[in-house]
Specification:
Elements lengths: L11 H16 L13 E6 L5 H12 L3 E6 L11 H11 L2 E5 L3 H10 L3 E4 L7 H15 L12 E5 L5 H13 L2 E5 L8 H10 L5 E4 L2 H5 L4 E4 L11 H8 L6 H4 L7 E4 L11 H4 L6 H22 L3
Parallel strand pairs: 1-2, 1-3, 3-4, 5-6, 5-8, 6-7, 8-9
Length: 313
Amino acid sequence: MKHFLKETDFSFHEIAEIFARALDFKKTRLGGSPPLLKNQTWAMLFYKSSTRTRVSFEVGINELDGNALYLDKSNMQLSRGETIADTAQILSRYVHGLIIRAYDHEIVEEFARHGSISVINALTDFLHPCQIYSDAFTMAEHWSDTAKLDSLRERKLAFLGDCAGNMANSWILAASLFGLRLALAGPEEFAPCSKIQELLNKEGSENNFTFTNDPSEAVLEADVVYTDVWTSMGDEEEAELRSEKMTPYAVTAELLGTAKPDALFMHCLPAHPGQEVTQEVLDSPKSIIFDQAENRLHVQKAILAALVEANRH
């Protein structure tokens, strides 16, 4: 059974095909998508609240002629002690696939281990692969008429802020996979975690990233400047400390100006203007944040299609 729990669950060649299909879905959307999920129901199990993830998946499943079933963990027997193992086996008798937005990464791994249907990681505290594929597609779309994955090779992406969070972890994996040069910048307390290095080593992936405490060093000559919120869901108690430590890493127009003249600004949203990024940068012509958000729909449809086809063999 094919799952999508981390960036490297698809090969470079498979990701290139996903990008090509996503571009086709995007171009032909008004004419309708093929009924690749006809007579299928995909459950969306959410431990966390969501806007982009829920809407893009629900719309995408519907556009592929499938049925989207939203499940809130707090309204299920999971919240009363039923095990993930039992829930995974039960859902496997009802639905054709499972999309999970959770806290611990082990949750999606356990569902994949005990169920007999495809599991998609729609975000955990460790990784956010759907976002990364969509962001990489958005970059390729800007640099290549056909959104070629090869267009990312040797490009420099500067990531500022929490370099131990799920977005930084996912970019570390993606940099190795896509041939990107990743420059991370943040406080020493939020340096890349050992867990992501262990995963790189386990998969035999190269280290395509550097880490510095100097935001100017990271942004210099970057093709993309990327940031995320300083405090993710579940870390609210640390908000004041994180804000104090990460203020020097806020993306301002002045800092963005030290990147390449045609550099792009990206943010996975939601943004907190005045914290990790200024409103001026969010509104600037360099900002492609809403392209990123839109492309979640097209890329996730392509991921769904890839999983359905892989599991037919």
